[in-house]
Amino acid sequence: MRARAFAKVNLALRVGGVRSDGFHELSSLSQSIDLHDTVELIDHGVEVDVSGVPTDHTNLALAALEAVSEAAGGPPTGVRLTKRIPTRAGLAGGSADAAAALGLGGERYGMDRSVLARIAPGIGSDVPFCLVGGSAIVSGRGEVVESLDPLGGFALGVVVPPLELSTAAVFAAFDGLGPGDPPSIGGSALPPPLRDLGPLRNDLYRAAVSVAPGVADWRSELESRWGRPVAMSGSGSSLFAYFTDWDEAASACDDVPVGARLAIGCTLMDRGWAIER
Q1: Closest CA to 132 of 174, 96, 162
Q2: What residues make up the domain containing 116?
Q3: N or C: which end of the chain has fewer CB within 10 A?
């Protein structure tokens, strides 16, 4: 059994205070894109085609499968990951893999989707959204997912600079910086379907720049080359801009500074994962 696990972009991210459970209160406009990993069930363990991804029980996809098999009372299973979503980039690659693993485990054990939804928050904050995917407003620590009518009529150009950012480090920097005014995108700079939701901003941008100043350099360079505002997804370092369609986004991604870990035109998806038949 094999599935595609779609990356997530935060089109907007507001960060509130720290909750009693130690997590920040969040509000995000989240969107699945067609950039994906492949997740496949195997007999046991974790197999990954790139370095830097854990292959022990800290791997979120394996943790998801262990939780499903325990809930179902079935035998444990393992996972093989073929990675295309860059790690530590703010694109929820690990959470997307975990959500697809939950889905595959649910298929294997005949488990209702509502049970998987109850398991998801315990695996990771982005897993509940990635299990549902599409277009959604996500709140709480990530466990509250309010699906929207699928967004459309635009594509994204996504660039991942040669910078890896720790989510924990960026949130720690956010706590130290205090209130600020991150860059935002609004009005006619947004695609028509998003204009009523704007202006859109990412409250973690200043913190990410304080951890890795190169994020600001890459954003400035892309804005100069592309002639449009550029935003950051999640805790970084991934950057994106809005384009009319995939062709325009892909053409823009042909003109990026040397050294990017990824530069790709992306279309929007209406789900977080999909079984490959």
Answers
A1: 96
A2: 2-149
A3: C
Look up the CATH number of the domain holding residue 214: 3.30.70.890
Whether 107 maps to a domain, the answer reads yes
The token pair at 222 is: 């892309």
Query: pLDDT tens across 200-248, in order?
Result: 999 999 999 999 999 999 999 999 999 999 999 999 999 999 999 999 9
* Residue with the two structure tokens 């046991």: 44
For 50-70, what is each residue's pLDDT tens digit?
998 999 989 999 999 999 999
The C-alpha R_g of the chain, in whole angstroms, comes to 18
**Co-location of 130 and 261 in the same domain:** no
* Neighbour tally for 204: CB within 10 Å: 28
Task: Say yes or no: 61 and 117 in one domain.
Answer: yes
Give catalytic residue positions: 8, 126
Q: What local confidence, expressed as pLDDT, does residue 12 receive?
A: 98
Token pair, residue 146, equals 């309010």
The answer to whether position 56 is within a domain reads yes
Q: What predicted TM-score, i.e. pTM, was given to this entire model?
A: 0.96
CB neighbourhood size of 189 (10 A): 16
Residue 250 in any domain: the answer is yes
